[in-house]
Specification:
alpha+beta, 16% strand, 5-stranded antiparallel beta sheet, Endonuclease MutS2, 20 helices, 6-stranded mixed beta sheet, nuclease, hydrolase, endonuclease
Length: 731
């Protein structure tokens, strides 16, 4: 774990997180992740006191299991746990934490034991009359010692020998500092020498009092041991409970540290989904200051990040791996949790560093091959590989890694790759489990944008990057000539060809989806036709039966002789005939072009009408359907419109922005938009009010302004305009 955290630049984050534990432990949270997540979210909504620092009690528990006697300080550590859980049980938790805490029942006597200690971990004085008497004696002896020292400091016989009148602590003994010859004035024991040649002495009367103090302390220790022995016997009887509550404390300590970290950093929690999909919305790596948030969808097995060196490819790789690592351990992060989705992975691995060094005597490429050889047996692994062709010829490496990656795809590994060469991307682009992302480069300002475009291969911009880092233009020009204009054009044509291939692949996918939709419609029409035919045959049978009954009733009149009976029979036959209702094919409602209609399961919009038919468009497919079979329907959800950018000069824009009361991320978002609007409006100077407060918001504003490409300079505002609580920004 430490190795992968170091590779992903998470060490500082984890060190800060571990500092919030009440006692040292591993960050891994065992058990049901879903239940832990619910409890953490519930705790996040509560105000609570974090647990006090605590020592590890594994040795103490083992000592108790062997009928040993614990020191009172060790017993007090258990007391702190019991007291803290007593405090938690009195808080008004909701569901999951409430249920968990209600199941914790204290054994008889455990709460009474905890009341026998004060807040400093000492036995309460009123617990035993002997302790009260000993403490009184202690006080009297100490007062007597101070009186003796005071007497000697003002003694006429000793004053000539005193170097000072202070009481010195030497070897845990209170003493006086005197010159040589003091033995004519006082009887005392020498306990040390000073650097100036003086003697540290303890007068005999003081020594006797100090011995009395030692005897009193020994008596107290005997009483303490007596209580420690009795307490240890009681705790041994409740050993199972102590082991349980000790583990329960560590579990709550995990929850507490995570919640404290989230509140401190304004972070969110995300629960891993039961899949391998990765969808990040506004994620920021915790190691970055004033970072640019990352949003991406990685739903296939391989993600290849191409483009310029120093364009943010490595940080994007580390960001994806870090988000998954933090989510696995239920650690908070800067992310929009409700719009993100992170899958579950058993292991994480990263091939980032260069393994070549004197100690292991191995080349870069050989080291990477050794690392790859260990991956073929792995399952449910998220792997990151930075600059995959590092250490060997990129053409050969592309062919080799293409084969290796294809094999790892068959093993269901999830892989993120960065490269500034196009060959590997070209070889793998045809695989339907491979996604491409290109790092974008600002050619106008010759610097990376730290933004990424999905579904394309990025350009390396090697010459442009060299110029950006102060390589002389004449050297870059010679390099371009050596590289050759034809080869450069060929590289661009290869890139365009690959991107055209990808576009074609997307369009073919769209055609396949459209064909699939047509097949569904045809199947639906076929089912509807069979249904209509079945209904028609049933209606025909019903009509035939009714006509047969009416005719049979009319035939009866021929056989009847009585005129009245004939009349009644004819009336009945006419009645049966009137009850026969023939099917009507008339249109129930008038339809027009633009109406939304449905025909059974098919919904669409009328784009044309002839005499008896309508041309209906459904999801890009046009169908001709008889008007009599159509019914009006509600509007169909419109597809998402294509992205368009319109720059409109803002109206009613002031030259100042007030950020008081906002969270750092929300404030920076508003500040970014305000500066953009100010530039469009033509302002060359604005003022931003952030206040002083805790300084967190002021720090965030200052760091943002330092890195904004459109900010020429900024400074604290004049006193009459806000002083330290505002910034004057020149654009």
């Amino acid at each position: 774990m430490e190795d992968i955290a170091l590779k992903l630049d998470l060490k500082a984050y984890l060190d800060e997180f571990r500092g919030l534990f009440a006692r040292e432990k591993d960050i891994f949270l065992q058990g049901d992740s879903h239940l832990h997540f619910e409890r953490i979210c519930e705790l996040s909504r509560m105000e609570f006191k974090p647990p006090l620092s605590l020592k590890k009690l594994d040795f103490a528990l083992m000592h108790l299991s062997k009928q040993g006697v614990l020191h009172l300080s060790e017993i007090y550590e258990f007391v702190k746990i019991v007291r803290y859980f007593g405090y938690l049980k009195n808080l008004k938790f909701e569901t999951h934490l409430k249920t968990w805490l209600e199941k914790i029942e204290f054994p008889n006597g455990i709460l009474e034991l905890s009341e026998k200690f004060d807040d400093k971990g000492e036995l309460k004085e009123n617990l035993d009359e002997r302790l009260i008497n000993l403490n009184i004696a202690f006080k009297m002896k100490n007062e007597a010692i101070q009186a003796e020292f005071k007497k000697y400091c003002y003694s006429k016989s000793l004053t000539p020998y005193l170097i000072d009148t202070q009481i010195h602590l030497v070897n845990n003994l209170e003493s006086l500092l005197v010159r040589g010859g003091f033995n004519h004035a006082i009887k005392a024991k020498i306990v040390g020498r000073s650097t100036g040649g003086g003697f540290y002495i303890v007068p005999e009367s003081v020594e006797k009092l100090q011995n009395d103090l030692d005897n009193l302390q020994n008596q107290k220790e005997e009483i303490y041991y007596e209580y420690a022995k009795n307490f240890s016997i009681f705790l041994t009887k409740n050993l199972l409970f102590l082991k349980f509550i000790n583990n329960a404390f560590d579990l709550f300590d995990h929850y507490s540290a995570r919640v404290l970290m989230a509140k401190k950093k304004d972070y969110e929690f995300i629960l891993c989904a039961n899949s391998d999909e990765i969808v990040l919305k506004d994620f920021a790596h915790p190691a970055l200051k004033n970072p640019k948030s990352v949003s991406l969808e990685f739903k296939k097995q391989v993600l290849i990040i191409t483009g310029v060196n120093a364009g943010g490819k490595s940080m994007l790789l580390k960001s994806i791996l870090s988000a998954c690592f933090l989510a696995k351990h239920l650690l908070p992060m800067h992310i929009k949790a409700d719009e993100s989705k992170i899958g579950t992975f058993k292991e994480f691995d990263a091939i980032i560093e260069d393994p070549q060094n004197v100690k292991n005597d191995i080349s870069t490429f050989a080291g990477r091959m050794l690392h790859f050889s260990k991956l073929f047996t792995k399952k449910n692994l998220l792997l990151g590989i930075d600059e995959i062709e590092l250490g060997t010829d990129f053409e050969e490496a592309a062919c080799l890694y293409s084969t290796l990656i294809s094999h790892l795809i068959s093993n269901k590994l999830k892989i993120i790759i960065t490269t500034h060469h196009k060959r590997l991307a070209m070889l793998l682009a045809e695989n339907e489990q491979v996604e491409l992302i290109a790092a974008l480069y600002d050619e106008e300002f010759s610097r990376p944008k730290y933004e990424f475009l999905k579904g394309t291969i990025g350009k390396s911009y090697a010459f442009e990057t060299a110029l950006r880092y102060q390589i002389p233009p004449n050297l870059v020009k010679k390099a371009k000539e050596l590289y050759g204009e034809d080869k450069q054009n060929l590289e661009e044509m290869v890139s365009k060809n690959i991107n055209l291939e990808l576009d074609l692949k997307l369009k073919l996918d769209e055609v396949d989806k459209k064909e699939q939709k047509i097949d569904e419609i045809l199947l639906s029409l076929k089912d509807q036709k069979e249904k209509n035919e079945s209904q028609f045959r049933q209606k025909l049978r019903d009509l035939e039966l009714k006509f047969y009954q009416a005719i049979e009733e009319a035939k009866k009149t021929i056989r009847l002789k009585d005129t009245k009976e004939k009349q009644r029979s004819l009336n009945k036959a006419n009645e049966l005939k009137k009850n026969i209702i023939l099917p009507s094919m008339e249109q129930n409602e008038e339809l027009r072009v633009g109406d939304f209609v449905k025909y059974e399961k098919i919904k669409g919009k009328i784009v044309g009408i002839s005499k008896n038919d309508a041309l209906v468009e459904s999801e890009g497919i046009k169908l001709r359907v008889p008007l009599k079979l159509l019914k009006k329907s509600g509007s169909i959800p419109k597809p998402s419109p294509k992205t368009s950018i319109n720059i409109t000069k803002p109206s009613n824009l002031g030259v100042s922005l007030d950020l008081h009361g906002l969270r750092s991320d929300e404030a920076i978002s508003r500040l970014d938009k305000f500066i953009s609007d100010a530039l469009i409006a033509g302002f060359d100077e604005v003022i931003v009010y952030h206040g002083i407060g805790t300084g967190k918001l002021a720090f965030a504003v200052r760091e943002f302004l330092k890195t904004h490409k459109s900010v020429k300079s900024f400074s604290d505002a004049p006193i009459n305009q806000g002083g330290f609580g505002a910034k004057v920004v020149r654009l």
